């Protein structure tokens, strides 16, 4: 079409039909003259198009003077209807070579496109908060000078991530490569759902699936709860499945964060081997591990150290997301791991890899691929100095599950904690131990967090056994306390594994109500094993360990403490008391101090194996320490 229009302009120039100003006289020519004199120069589609435009009232007598002779093809092009456009595209003169001919008329391909909008905003490099204008300080994280200007092109049809996902055009995976969740809708659901036109590029629904709202009963008809998840076998696999809520959900986007060297890549490489080998619930299938930080040889060396030799585990080292999506389309894997999201980039998006725009667009593209194809995708995220995942906060909002792998330097155990889970509870944790063959599950976590104490051993450091709940699992931890007199006016309170504000509250209650004058003492608290305790059920054990060190009274080794301390000195009951006492009984403890208000909430069977001591206030507990506990 453009080539024919350029040819028409050239013919008009040869016959002096272009408008011009000569001696102040305006010479005009109509389009009818052009069509009548040179109708044989055009093919039938272009001739029909020009004749229809010439017959319209807006162009029939429109003069072609010098100011508009170069722009009339553009005005016609924008007024072309959909049917006319399709017919002109079938013309023999329509080709990509029109640029050279149209260039003489001042027409470019970019001038015929819709004008691109440009959005300018400012993003905080520290927390990822965005603002419409520049401020000297980020109002979210209160950091100075961290706002950076970002210019983003907004084109019709979505951002760079949307276009990359649409360009991949990944089809449905075979049934044996996915969980039962990826099955097609039942026939009753198809009959009951109303028909609607496909919303191409706007929906997460898979190609060929039912579009439009569906009844909840029709969606869930014939599908049990166990069919919505992909089971994971083995000790490590079962521990990960329990943290995820019972298994891996097809189509989920999972973000795993953690400090450098904590074992994120090792854990995901073991998980890839489990999924690739298959089990009694599903057959072996390809699993793709993509790394933007390591080469294939380096990943293979780590797999050899972990004794992983799965034939269906594919390694791919790349950072271009378009290349990664192309490999996913060809391989059609059961699961994909991206290590890490901060190293992946889209060529169309602005900024370098790891920037706010790049991370957001890459995550949006991967989310679309995961939802459309029921493909579980794992993303590894870097963390900042404060422990948060690097990049924009919207990354944690986009994904379905956010996991953190925690561990202290010099300690062998690792804790997999879930922060966000759309498919299960956020209270579950998994406990692993770093061994020669990778991360192994810890069968009895309570023994891991209990120190090696000798019977009736004395010393200035006192330890009390507390029972904490991590999700549905009770953990027994030892809380150590050391009180020393201060030689200066500066008092130091140091705590490891506990909230410092919680410690200050307990010290104030002991000093005001229990008569334990620790306001002039340096108090040091340590939780053995490096576990981070977040619940108040350990308050009683913390208070008892402080009193034991201050009063030089030894705590019996067969006693545990459960209870929360209020500001009035009362001991409050805690949740899931039966599970806590049951764990105390399994590990051989004979006595347990619990709140008096929870006396009726404990089953009789537990009382027979463990002697329960009921106390109402912290003063009563301190009195029992002074009267019963042996001096150091």
UniProtKB/TrEMBL annotation:
InterPro entries assigned: AAA+_ATPase, DNA_repair_RadA, P-loop_NTPase, RecA_ATP-bd, Ribosomal_Su5_D2-typ_SF, Ribsml_uS5_D2-typ_fold_subgr
Disordered: annotated segments: 176-197
Annotated GO biological process: recombinational repair
Natural source organism: Adiantum capillus-veneris (Maidenhair fern)
Cited Gene3D superfamilies: 3.30.230.10, P-loop containing nucleotide triphosphate hydrolases
PROSITE patterns, per database record: RECA_2
Entry-linked Pfam families: AAA_25, ChlI
Alphabetical list of CDD domains matching this protein: RadA_SMS_N (cd01121)
Transmembrane segments: none
Coiled coil feature spans: none
Residue intervals of the RecA family profile domain: 229-383
Compositionally biased spans, kind Polar residues: 181-196
GO molecular function per UniProt: ATP binding; ATP-dependent DNA damage sensor activity; damaged DNA binding; hydrolase activity; metal ion binding
SUPFAM superfamilies in the cross-refs: P-loop containing nucleoside triphosphate hydrolases (SSF52540), Ribosomal protein S5 domain 2-like (SSF54211)
Lineage of the species this protein comes from: Eukaryota, Viridiplantae, Streptophyta, Embryophyta, Tracheophyta
Keywords from the named record: ATP-binding, Chloroplast, DNA damage, DNA repair, DNA-binding, Hydrolase, Metal-binding, Nucleotide-binding, Plastid, Stress response
Protein name per Swiss-Prot or TrEMBL: RecA family profile 1 domain-containing protein
């Amino acid at each position: 079409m453009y080539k024919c229009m350029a040819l028409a302009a050239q013919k008009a120039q040869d016959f002096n039909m272009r408008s011009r100003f000569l001696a102040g006289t305006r010479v005009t020519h109509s389009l009818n003259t052009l069509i009548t004199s040179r109708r044989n120069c055009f093919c039938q589609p272009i001739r029909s198009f020009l004749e229809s435009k010439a017959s319209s009232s807006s162009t029939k007598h429109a003069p072609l003077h010098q100011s508009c002779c170069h722009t009339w093809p553009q005005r016609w092009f924008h007024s072309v209807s959909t049917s006319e456009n399709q017919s002109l595209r079938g013309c023999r003169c329509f080709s990509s070579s029109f640029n050279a001919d149209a260039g003489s008329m001042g027409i470019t391909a970019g001038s015929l496109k819709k004008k691109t909008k440009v959005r300018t905003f400012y993003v905080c490099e520290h927390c990822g908060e965005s603002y419409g204008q520049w401020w000297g300080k980020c109002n979210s994280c209160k950091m100075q000078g961290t706002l950076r200007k970002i210019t983003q092109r907004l084109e019709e049809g979505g951002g760079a991530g949307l276009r990359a996902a649409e360009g991949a055009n990944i089809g449905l995976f075979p049934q044996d490569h996915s969980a039962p969740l990826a099955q097609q809708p039942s026939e009753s659901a198809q009959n009951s759902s109303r028909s609607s036109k496909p919303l191409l590029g706007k929906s997460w629904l898979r190609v060929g699936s039912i579009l439009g709202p569906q009844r909840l009963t029709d969606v869930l008809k014939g599908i049990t709860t166990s069919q919505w998840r992909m089971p994971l076998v083995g000790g490590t696999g079962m521990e990960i499945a329990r943290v995820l809520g019972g298994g891996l959900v097809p189509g989920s986007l999972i973000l795993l964060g953690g400090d450098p060297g904590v074992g994120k890549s090792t854990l995901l490489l073991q998980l890839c081997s489990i999924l690739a080998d298959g089990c009694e619930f599903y057959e072996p299938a390809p699993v793709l591990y993509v790394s933007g930080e390591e080469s294939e040889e380096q990943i293979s060396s780590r797999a050899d150290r972990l004794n992983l030799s799965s034939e269906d585990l594919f390694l791919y080292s790349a950072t271009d997301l378009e290349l990664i999506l192309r490999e996913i389309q060809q391989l059609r894997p059961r699961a994909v791991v991206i290590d890490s999201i901060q190293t992946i980039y889209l060529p169309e998006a602005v900024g370098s890899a790891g920037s706010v725009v790049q991370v957001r667009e890459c995550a949006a593209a991967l989310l679309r691929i995961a939802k459309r194809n029921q493909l579980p995708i794992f993303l590894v995220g870097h963390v900042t100095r404060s422990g948060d995942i690097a990049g924009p906060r919207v990354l944690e909002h986009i994904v379905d599950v956010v996991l953190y792998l925690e561990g202290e330097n010099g300690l062998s155990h690792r804790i997999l904690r879930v922060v966000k889970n759309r498919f299960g509870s956020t209270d579950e944790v998994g406990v692993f131990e770093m061994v020669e063959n990778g991360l192994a599950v810890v069968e009895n976590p309570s023994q891991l967090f209990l120190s090696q104490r000798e019977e009736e051993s004395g010393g200035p450091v006192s330890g009390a056994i507390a029972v904490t709940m991590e999700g549905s699992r009770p953990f027994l931890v030892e809380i150590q306390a050391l009180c020393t007199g201060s030689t200066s006016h500066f008092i130091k309170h140091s705590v490891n594994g506990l909230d410092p504000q919680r410690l200050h509250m307990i010290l104030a209650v002991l000093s005001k109500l229990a008569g334990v004058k620790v306001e002039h003492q340096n108090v040091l608290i340590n939780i053995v094993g490096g576990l981070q305790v977040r619940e108040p059920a350990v308050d009683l054990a913390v208070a008892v360990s402080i009193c034991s060190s201050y009063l030089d009274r030894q705590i019996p080794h067969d006693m545990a403490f459960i209870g929360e301390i209020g500001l009035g000195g009362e001991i409050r009951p805690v949740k899931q008391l039966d599970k806590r006492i049951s764990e105390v009984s399994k590990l051989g403890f004979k006595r347990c101090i619990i709140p008096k208000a929870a006396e009726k909430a404990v089953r009789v069977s537990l009382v027979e194996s463990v002697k329960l001591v009921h106390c109402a206030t912290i003063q009563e507990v301190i009195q029992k320490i002074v009267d019963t506990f042996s001096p150091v």
